[in-house]
Structure formats: structure tokens, C-alpha cells
Amino acid sequence: MDDCIFCKIAFGEVRVPRIYENENFFSIKDAHPKVEGHSLVISKKHFKNVLDMPSSLGTELIDCVKNTYAKLGKELKCEGFNVVSNNFKAGGQEVNHVHFHILPRKEDDGFRIFVNK
Ligand code: AMP
Ligand code: ZN
After folding, report:
1. In the chain, N or C terminus with fewer CB closer than 10 Å?
2. Segment 66-110, tens digit of pLDDT
3. What residues does each domain of the chain span?
């Protein structure tokens, strides 16, 4: 996709350090972090959203989530994390290339997302 920033990063046209990568996914730090260490797991291929992505990539997706958090966890000494995926405009999606937010958490950090109690 010509005009997709995540495709440009995936192809190395825009150079961004990678936290972790496997055959189909890679992770980078979010450009506008909501919490310390806020990162994104991004598909190397252009799928618009979770519905557009083949279910067979699920294992590699979870591998990238786990390994990204393992690296962030060591770096930041965080104590937990949230995985968030915004889908479609009504779901708050701004970049139409499937990605998953990794939000490192610490006890009593005060950060709240709407699914929090
Ligand atoms: P959303 O589509 O709502 O899940 O949000 C897209 C996320 O991508 C936002 O948190 C942005 O800060 C992030 N983002 C957009 N462009 C870049 C970029 N070039 N590098 C890193 N993160 C980005
Ligand atoms: Zn793309």
C-alpha cells in the first residue's frame, strides 16, 4: 500500500528500530506513547484490521506480543500489560493497517482504559 505508514516501516522505507520480529510481525515503540514503553505489534503484510487478517497468523501474533513484552518488561521493570486493538473508525482506528498496542503497566500507575474497572 503506497500511502500506508506501517507498510513503509515494514519495508524499511521509513527506518524505525524494531523491538522484536518474526516472519509475519514486528514491534516498535509508539510515536505518541500513552504510557512509558507503549509499543505496537504490526503485521508485515498489509491487512486493514483484525477481520482482514488470516486467523492462521494468530500463533505468530502471540509470539510477537510475548517477546515484545519480555523485552519491555526487562527494560522498564513493568508488572503487567494491556493489549489493545482498535478496529474500524468507530473503534478508534487511525492507521488502517492491523496493529496491536502493548501498554506496559505498573501497580497504581493511574492509567485507565475504558475496559478497566
Ligand atoms: P490506532 O490506529 O488508533 O490504533 O492508533 C495508531 C497508533 O499508531 C497511534 O498510537 C500512533 O501514535 C501510532 N503511530 C502512527 N504513526 C506512527 C509511526 N510512524 N511510528 C510509530 N507509531 C506511530
Ligand atoms: Zn500497510
Report:
1. C
2. 999 999 988 898 999 999 999 999 999 999 999 999 999 999 899
3. 5-105
List the beta bridge partners of residue 105: 80
**Of ligand 1's atoms, which has the minimum distance to the CA of residue 96?**
2
Query: Which pLDDT score, from 0 to 100, does residue 112 have?
Result: 87
5-105 architecture in CATH? 2-Layer Sandwich (3.30)
Which numbered ligand comes closest to the C-alpha of 6? 2
Q: Which of 7, 28, 30 to probe ligand 1 with, by most ligand atoms within 8 A of CB? A: 30
Q: Which ligand lies nearest to the CA atom of residue 1 in the structure?
A: 2
Catalytic residue (choose from 38, 97, 99, 101): 99
- The band of 24, judged by pLDDT with boundaries at 50, 70 and 90, is very high
Question: Does the annotation mark 32 as catalytic?
Answer: no
